[in-house]
Amino acid sequence: xxxxxxxxxxxxxxxxxxxxxxxxxxxxxxxxxxxxxxxxxxxxxxxxxxxxxxxxxxxxxxxxxxxxxxxxxxxxxxxxxxxxxxxxxxxxxxxxxxxxxxxxxxxxxxxxxxxxxxxxxxxxxxxxxxxxxxxxxxxxxxxxxxxxx
Length: 149
Known about the structure:
There is one protein chain. By secondary structure, this protein is of the alpha/beta class. It has one domain: 3-Layer(aba) Sandwich (Rossmann fold). 40% of the residues lie in helices and 17% in strands. The chain has helices at residues 14-27, 39-48, 67-75, 94-102, 115-132, and strands at residues 5-10, 31-36, 55-58, 85-89, 107-110. Strands 2-1-3-4-5 form a five-stranded parallel β-sheet, with helices on both faces.
């Protein structure tokens, strides 16, 4: 049985959305892509949809709620905190990198210049998180400290 991966792309630039869509198509990963064009829509989708994403590509600069605000809320929400969040952004600021990792992003990936490089980046990132890494099938339940022995 082939698993259909649910991917959420949070991106307000239509050109970037189409480039990521094409890159995912070329990746060979069997997926269903949902696009949210602002931070509020991303949070609404992840909280309300019965089908939670397996992977989230999140831009840093978004309308309504920034990528960092979305990241913070995702990582502190039970049932969503285990979802890998990849910051996919143009920002090269070391402060942005530090803040993203400080709020527990799983990777900070700069959007490369050029379509071919973007395709390679999306393929590699998607393949790692969806084919190579082992992710929980459902949200983990918190363990008590005594059960960790």
